[in-house]
Amino acid sequence: MFHFEEELKKLPARPGVYIMHDADDAIIYVGKAISLRNRVRSYFRESTNKSPKIEKMVTKIARFEYIVTDSELEALVLENNLIKEHSPKYNTMLKDDKTYPYIKVTLGEEYPRVLFSRQMKKDRSKYFGPFKSAFAVKDTIELINKLYKLRTCNRSLPRDAGLERPCLNHHIGQCSAPCQGTVSRGEYRKAVEGAMDFLNGNFAPVLADLQQKMEAASERMDFEEAIRYRDLYNSVTQVAQKQKITDSDGEDKDVIALARDEDDAVVQVFFVRDGKLIGREHFIMTGASDCSKAQILLDFVKQFYAGTPFVPKELMLQEEIEDIPVLEQWLTARRGSRVYIRVPRKGAKEKLVELAATNAALVLSKDRERIKREEGRTIGAVKEICALLSLPSADRMEAFDISNISGFENVGSMVVYEKGKPKRSDYRKFKIKTVAGPDDYACMREVLIRRFTHGMEEEKELSKKQMDREFGSFTRFPDLLLMDGGKGQVNIALEVLEELHLSIPVCGMVKDDNHRTRGLYYRNEEIEIDTRSEGFKLITRIQDEAHRFAIEYHRSLRSKDQVRSVLDGIPGVGPARRKALMRHFKSIEEIRKADVQELARVPEIPAHIAEEIYSFFHRDVLE
Q1: Chain Cα centroid distance, residue 229
Q2: Strands 314-317 and 253-260
Q3: Can you give the pLDDT at residue 246?
Q4: Does residue 354 contact residue 256 with C-beta atoms inside 8 Å?
Q5: In this predicted structure, what is the pLDDT of residue 620?
């Protein structure tokens, strides 16, 4: 039993992080404090003004724990790590379900390359971005390599210099071929520096150089070369024209503002590099209800800059936030040079922040309808199904299907939907072990027994934390079990669950004579469902997905089995030679067409084995 009064008395007056747990021991809130004693006690004092969200959170606290740190800065870093690790329910969270592309210049290499990257590693590379469009990043990298003739290969230079012939890029004039020693390290580095200037928005030298080369080629009447320079000039011009906003101080900065309504918040960030706007992006903040704009901005800054590869010299914010000195100290350490957080009050900088806020409001307005439509297709559809079946919830639904052709390679599929969306990481395939013929009921029985027995065994062996992290697909049982069929399949599932002493609702997805979803079979009766409803559409998607997943698995096994049945019957052809043949010829038909000489060209196939293969496929003709 956790005694709050006693534990509150033990709190030290030191900086650190506090962690709130609910009755199920789940972490529901993580915070940092200059003084743990003062901060944690404030949650349990009636005289303290608390937002409705925090009031509700306090009623859920069953116990708390804390970690003491040496400084507020250490507490800030630890708080970020714990929030990212546990995603507490009552913290305002940056919805980080997508990664943004960056351009990476590999300065740690002797001959650097310009690469596409979605993550930052602790190397000596320089990162530019983030950018919203992966296609735009790839186009920009392609343009840079054409302009500066940088290498795109992964050879280790100078170690591998001269070992291989230059690639096609060198022959078409798009690589200076450092692998052949045709360019000095100094000249190549100069080209790399030019590429980084370009990425920083300094286009004038490139445009002037291309203009000069285009005119010189025209004077020589080398019109093909002139056209090439003209196309490059136009490409650079298009990139340069995207830089709509400039700033006379030429510094790197991020401009951050937000818009919100009762439930949602959108943070808009303008990325200004070398005084030019190179891109912008918006971010959704969840759990933002009852939070002030300042609190949402504070949470965003901490979470976003804990993970982004690049920290600018200045952050320009819409509102004053707490902990600015500590945040500046933390960001300075991450950047390696002084970082400032400012709230502009007048002039061009204030207008830039207002512009970011206006864009955030537009995104919020534009996305609200899309979000509502998406929620209707997912969460709304789940609610419709729950209402139809009188279930309290169906956050996790699992659907099963069996696939075979006349009993050949019986397989089963398990697909998982959480909150109306497919969770593909939890999909599972089953190769039937105990059923020889085309008996779908017996196959389904084996699949269900294996699925739930596996989950129950893991549940006994592992702690909750380990289960959630390592074996979430099996230890997490569904709120609703969906069977591809009617009464027969449902009864099989109910028998298995009864044998295993599990209580899970089971529903059949019934199809008509044309193999289209007709309704649901639940508790010994068929339930009609409006075919125009989102719930019906979700059921259809789940049923089709289970069928598709089973068919694909069956097809892959059937294909592998056919390869084995043909090639493994040839004397001297084992797994290694079979793979070599398929790698070289791509298909059984191509192997069949090949003569002895063609077969012997495969390095792993000696001449006498080539003759065996040829004889095997042409036995009837030879006889």
Answers
A1: 38
A2: parallel
A3: 43
A4: no
A5: 44
The amino acid present at 252, given as its one-letter code, is D
Strands 421-422 vs 408-418: parallel, antiparallel or unpaired: antiparallel
Domains of the chain and CATH, by start: 4-91 (3.40.1440.10), 253-375 (3.30.420.10), 382-559 (3.30.420.340), 568-622 (1.10.150.20)
Give pLDDT tens digits for 206-256. Answer: 888 888 888 888 888 888 888 878 887 877 776 555 544 444 455 789 999
pLDDT digits (tens, 9 = 90+) for 509-554: 888 777 677 889 999 988 888 888 999 999 999 988 988 888 887 6
CA atoms within 13 A on the CB side of 377: 11
Closest CA to 364 of 239, 260, 455: 260
Residue 158, preceding bond cis, omega within 30 degrees? yes
* Dist. CA 80–CA 73, nearest whole Å: 11
Omega before 344 within 30 of 0, i.e. cis: no
Model confidence pLDDT, tens digit, residues 247-281: 445 578 999 999 987 767 889 888 887 777 766 77
Asked if 263 and 325 touch (Cβ cutoff 8 Å), the reply is no
Task: List, in order, residues 6 or more apart from 248 with CB less than 8 Å away.
Answer: 275
The model's pTM: 0.46
